[in-house]
């Protein structure tokens, strides 16, 4: 590929030194930006994500969570926007650590390929990635409203109040973990270098499209796991941290594909327990 053709022995020493300095500075700026975005999104979630509720008050180790009677909220447009923001920021906090290797590799490859480009291509790649999770967040917010209005989801604590719903979510996630499509999407997330070589697009619009494309693979890989937040608590820190760590391990561990299969089997077993025990 063209972006792999830059060899150190073809660059003059003075130019190589300047280029190395630029690459080093650009890499650290990208890392700092990702860390800052992660910390800000995590802080927002811990602060209640605009819901007015303490996240600690919505956190429990008990599963299924305790059931309380609660009248469904009336979903106004302003409340729906708050819920959408909550879902999107939460997805940023949960998914950014596992996406960081691909984003950093894109930044490195782009700077080698176009060392004098001024457009914020890394920002556009990240924006495209986050737009994919915004699309998921829109769907999750709509489902959230339907479940709450149906009385299946606690309106304040945001966790399932129905054993059938909990079992169905577990079975859905477990079944998806074992499908070829799940593992096809996971393979794209686990091999960023191969993915970049196949899907590279130049320019600012190419960066945005690549980020969106990669984000859609991540959504395809993890959407059913994210829906498990409805089972354990959308703002339950135990489930947020547990699912984020699981996604990270699936993508980074050498045995990540086997971890996904084992997790799928365990989720299917848990779903059957919810239905039949």
Low-confidence stretches at least 5 residues in length (pLDDT < 50)? 1-16
**H-E string:** HHHHHHHHHH
Shape: globular
Number of domains: 1
Helix content: over 70%
Provide an overview of this structure.
- By secondary structure, this protein is mainly alpha-helical.
- It has one domain (about 1-275).
- Helices cover about 70% and strands about 0% of the residues.
- It is built from ten helices and no strands.
- The protein has helices at about 15-45, 75-115, 120-150, 165-175, 180-190, 190-200, 205-225, 230, 235-250, 255-275.
- The chain is globular, with a radius of gyration of 21 Å.
- The termini are far apart.
Write out key terms for the chains shown:
disordered N terminus, mainly alpha, globular, 277 residues
Task: Summarize the topology.
Elements: H1 13-46, H2 77-113, H3 121-149, H4 163-177, H5 180-190, H6 192-199, H7 203-227, H8 229-232, H9 237-252, H10 256-276
Helix pairs in contact: 1-2, 2-3, 2-9, 3-7, 4-7, 4-10, 5-7, 9-10
């Amino acid at each position: 590929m063209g972006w792999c053709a830059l060899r150190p022995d073809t660059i003059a020493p003075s130019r190589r030194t300047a280029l190395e300095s630029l690459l080093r500075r650009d890499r650290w700026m990208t890392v700092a930006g990702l860390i800052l975005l992660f910390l800000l999104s995590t802080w927002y979630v811990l602060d209640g994500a605009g819901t007015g509720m303490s996240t600690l008050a919505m956190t429990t180790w008990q599963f299924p969570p305790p059931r309380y009677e609660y009248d469904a909220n009336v979903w106004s447009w302003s409340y729906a926007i708050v819920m959408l923001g909550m879902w999107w920021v939460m997805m940023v906090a949960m998914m950014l650590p596992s996406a960081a290797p691909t984003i950093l590799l894109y930044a490195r490859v782009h700077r080698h390929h176009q060392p004098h480009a001024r457009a914020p291509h890394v920002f556009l790649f990240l924006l495209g990635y986050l737009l994919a999770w915004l699309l998921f967040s829109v769907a999750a917010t709509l489902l959230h409203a339907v479940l709450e209005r149906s009385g299946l989801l606690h309106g304040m604590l945001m966790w399932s109040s129905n054993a059938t719903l909990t079992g169905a979510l577990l079975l859905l996630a477990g079944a998806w973990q074992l499908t070829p499509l799940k593992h096809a999407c996971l393979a794209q997330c686990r091999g960023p270098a191969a993915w970049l070589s196949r899907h590279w697009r130049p320019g600012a619009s190419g960066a945005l499209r690549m980020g969106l494309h990669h984000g859609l693979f991540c959504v395809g890989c993890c959407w059913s796991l994210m829906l498990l937040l409805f089972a354990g608590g959308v703002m339950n820190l135990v489930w947020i941290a547990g699912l984020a760590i699981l996604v990270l391990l699936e993508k980074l561990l050498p045995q990540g594909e086997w971890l996904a299969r084992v997790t799928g089997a365990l989720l299917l077993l848990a779903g059957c327990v919810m239905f039949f025990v």
